[in-house]
Amino acid sequence: MGKNDIQELIEQTLQIRDCAYAPYSDYPVGALAVTEDGKYFSGCNVENVSYPAGSCAERNAIAAAIAAGNKNFAFIIIAGDLKHPTYPCGICRQVMAEFQIPYVIIVKENKQYEKIALEELLPHSFTAALVKNIRSYK
């Protein structure tokens, strides 16, 4: 995937961000999960007055892909406040680890971006392989 393709996906992610429902934080976030076979699934943050009931853009995009039968991801793009790049929260990082999303693209000022390996964002993640290993010791 070339730089122009990434820029087009960034534009889509910014449009998704504009759909966010963020009346409490005033911090809209958009995400675009891209599957290995080139399908795109969008998500935005949806807040709730009962804060734990809200959901993050990243998890919403991943859930949309899962609901459509897709579990093999190439990457995910995240766009929030471009002056202060939006990195995924811990829960979203763990969900990304569950589906082995290899890297994350963080949109920055002037639509520049940073590509980060998930392993760098969540080193020593809790994985299904670890659980299987623990079970085998019993």
Question: Would you mind describing this structure in some detail?
Answer:
With 138 residues, the protein is an alpha+beta fold. The protein has 5 helices and 5 strands; from the N terminus they run αββαβαββαα. The chain has helices at 3-17, 57-67, 90-98, 118-121, 128-136; strands spanning 30-35, 40-44, 73-79, 103-107, 113-117. A hairpin with a 5-residue loop joins β4 and β5 (113-117). The N and C termini lie far apart (45 Å).
Main features:
about 140 residues, alpha+beta, 5 helices
Using the alpha-carbon principal axes, give the shape: globular
Low-confidence stretches at least 5 residues in length (pLDDT < 50)?
none
Fraction of residues in helices? 25-40%
Mean pLDDT across residues: 94
Q: What integer value in Å does the Rg equal?
A: 15 Å
Backbone structural class: alpha+beta
> How many H/I helical runs?
5
SSE topology string: HEEHEHEEHH
Record the strand order, biggest sheet: 2-1-3-4-5
Q: Main sheet, how many strands, which sense, barrel? A: 5 strands, mixed
Beta-strand percentage?
15-25%
Distance between the termini: 45 Å
Query: Quick one: how many beta strands?
Result: 5
Oligomer: single chain
Question: How do the strands and helices of this protein lay out in sequence?
Answer:
Elements: H1 3-17, E1 30-35, E2 40-44, H2 57-67, E3 73-79, H3 90-98, E4 103-107, E5 113-117, H4 118-121, H5 128-136
Parallel strand pairs: 3-4
Antiparallel strand pairs: 1-2, 1-3, 4-5
